Amino acid sequence: MEIRPYRPEDLAACRELWRELTQHHRDIYDDQSIGGADPGAHFDEYLAHPKFVGAWVAEAAGAIVGLTGLLGSGAEAEIEPVVVSAAHRARGIGRRLIERMLAEARARGAQSVSIRPVARNALAIRRFHEAGFRILGHIEMFQKLDPSADPGWKPGLDLHGHAFRY
Q1: Band of the pLDDT at 153, cuts 50, 70, 90?
Q2: Which domains does the chain have, with CATH numbers?
Q3: How far is the C-alpha of 144 from the C-alpha of 123, rounded, in Å?
Q4: 3-state secondary structure the chain
Q5: What pLDDT was estimated at residue 10?
Q6: How many Å apart are CA 100 and CA 94, to the nearest integer?
Q7: pLDDT tens column, 64-121
Q8: Would you state the pLDDT for residue 69?
Q9: CA angle 36, 34, 151 (to 5 degrees)
Q10: pTM of this structure
Q11: In angstroms, rounded to a whole number, what is the distance separating the alpha carbons of residues 96 and 9?
Q12: Which of 21, 60, 141, 153 is most buried per CB count within 10 Å?
């Protein structure tokens, strides 16, 4: 397995990984509308992000099985996304992708690196914590203006003595 910079010929495979990541989010939030009709096309938007530094892929036996990228400039960088195809998970590929991004961020002079998993992605949160992400920086909070549109937020998170749903 090799981790290498993204190349234009990787576009279709990376769109498929982006689609797979979006489907995972759809499933954990029980909301099939996440990502719209063509979630893989959002990879193209990602490549055009104003803070896009670069993307890297994990390639095994000639197939693209993982994708990660780096956003940011100067002292702050963000790893976004980290996705490994379902058929290749639990083999250390995600950890290697993260390690590569940390090395890239260091080489570019970043002083800190952030990563932003969705709140319900408990497995990703566990894996990122294991990879050394143990400092909370920002928390994004929501208030539903139409309670009837509540997608079934789960109770069970406490922060600073306050109960939250996720």
Answers
A1: confident
A2: 2-165 (3.40.630.30)
A3: 26
A4: CEEEECCHHHHHHHHHHHHHHHHHHHHHHCCCCCCCCCHHHHHHHHHCCCCEEEEEEEEECCEEEEEEEEEEECCEEEEEEEEECHHHCCCCHHHHHHHHHHHHHHHCCCCEEEECCCCCCHHHHHHHHHCCCCCCCCCCCCCCCCHHHCCCCCEEEEECCEEEEC
A5: 98
A6: 10
A7: 999 999 999 889 999 999 999 999 998 999 999 999 999 999 999 999 999 999 988 9
A8: 97
A9: 140
A10: 0.88
A11: 22
A12: 21
How many other CB atoms are found less than 10 A from the CB of residue 14? Answer: 24
Q: How far is CA 146 from CA 26, 141, 150, in A?
A: 20, 16, 7
Tokens linked to 49: 């992000």
Residue 145 has pLDDT above 90, yes or no: no
Cα(130)–Cα(95) distance, integer angstroms: 9
Q: How far apart are CA 109 and CA 127, in angstroms?
A: 25
63/166: higher pLDDT? 63
Question: 49 near 71, Cβ under 8 Å?
Answer: yes
